[in-house]
């Protein structure tokens, strides 16, 4: 394994992430699904690792995230936790592991936390606020996820930009407020106009919004590792930048991503936003 970017980096905590956010320092997040890449992105200085259910497509070869099970997520979270040393680990609750009841969500979250996650992520707004409240009251930090929520791809009719019209934007803002009030500490905002993401952050200053295809105005950014390394087949969305083309190695590409998010040069509103 290579030398860490920040040799004596202390393990990331929710308190430190909040502190970074309060000071206006951008938060970096990348996905990882195994120990090798977890160590690599941690060494390259990424603040937070998302063990995303996107592994259903990238690791398991499915056409969506829908088939991923809680057992799959526990396995990959364990792998990531073994490789990681300092980054904050967010474990994704997969489709069907939290929709049934608050109790089911708690059981699934406990399984991810015991596998090594520091926080769990769940998709959607409205009914999820009650679940978020239930989990946070029980000591589980929660990252919400609004906008394009891939587990609902069949209900949404495809991977489309959300909140484009005023009614859609209003619903997103309402759901974000409810989730913030319920205790969500972090919120992924996926595929929405920059103006809507900016409003969500402004309405909920204490929440760390993490954008993906949501422009410059969020507290941090996330990309799927395979996308920013351009090893994913097929057409990549507009919001992805090929950091591998700029770097001489995978680790260099990740370092460039961290630097670009921190200095605000990624995403570029003119190129990667809607
Ligand atoms: O599963 C995942 O990788 C995600 C990101 C796209 C945010 O949810």
The gist of it:
The protein has twelve helices and eight strands.
What does this structure look like?
The chain is of the alpha/beta class and 274 residues long. 41% of the residues lie in helices and 14% in strands. α9 links the parallel β6 and β7. The longest helix is centred in the middle third of the chain and has 17 residues. The model has no long low-confidence stretch (mean pLDDT 96). The protein binds 3-methyl-2-oxobutanoic acid. The site of 3-methyl-2-oxobutanoic acid has 11 residues, from β6. 3-methyl-2-oxobutanoic acid binds next to β6.
Task: Give the CA-CA distance, first to last residue.
Answer: 38 Å
Determine the number of helices (DSSP H or I, runs of at least 4 residues). 12
Q: Per the principal axes of the C-alpha atoms, what is the gross shape? A: globular
Q: What is the succession of H and E elements?
A: HEHEHHEHEHEHHEHEEHHH
Number of strands: 8
Beta-strand share of residues: 5-15%
**Main sheet summary:** 8 strands, parallel, barrel
Give the % helix.
40-55%
Distinct ligands, ions and cofactors found in the model: 3-methyl-2-oxobutanoic acid
Which structural class do you get from the secondary structure elements? Answer: alpha/beta
Radius of gyration: 17 Å
For the largest sheet, list the strands in their spatial order.
1-2-3-4-5-6-7-8
Q: Average pLDDT across residues?
A: 96
Show unreliable segments. none
């Amino acid at each position: 394994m290579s030398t860490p970017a920040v040799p004596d980096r202390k393990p990331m905590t929710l308190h430190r992430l909040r502190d970074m956010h309060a000071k206006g320092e951008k938060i970096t997040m990348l996905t990882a699904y195994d120990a090798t890449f977890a160590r690599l992105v941690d060494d390259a200085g990424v603040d937070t690792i998302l063990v995303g259910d996107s592994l259903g497509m990238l690791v398991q070869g499915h056409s969506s995230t829908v088939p991923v099970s809680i057992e799959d997520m526990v396995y990959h979270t364990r792998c990531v936790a073994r490789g990681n040393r300092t980054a904050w680990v967010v474990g994704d609750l997969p489709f069907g592991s939290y929709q049934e009841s608050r109790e089911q969500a708690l059981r699934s979250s406990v399984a991810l936390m015991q596998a090594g996650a520091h926080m769990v992520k769940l998709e959607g707004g409205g009914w999820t606020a009650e679940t978020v409240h239930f989990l946070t009251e029980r000591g589980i930090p929660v990252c919400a996820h609004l906008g394009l929520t891939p587990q609902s791809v069949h209900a949404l009719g495809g991977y489309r930009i959300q909140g484009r019209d005023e009614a859609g934007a209003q619903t997103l803002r309402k759901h974000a407020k409810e989730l913030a009030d319920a205790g969500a500490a972090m919120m992924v905002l996926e595929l929405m106009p920059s103006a809507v993401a900016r409003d969500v952050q402004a309405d909920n200053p204490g929440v760390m919004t993490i954008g993906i295809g949501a422009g410059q105005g969020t507290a941090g950014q996330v990309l799927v590792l395979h996308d920013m390394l351009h090893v994913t087949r097929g057409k990549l969305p507009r919001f992805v930048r090929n950091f591998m083309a700029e770097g001489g190695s995978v680790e260099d590409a990740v370092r460039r991503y961290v630097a670009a998010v921190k200095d605000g040069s990624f995403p570029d509103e003119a190129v990667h936003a809607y």
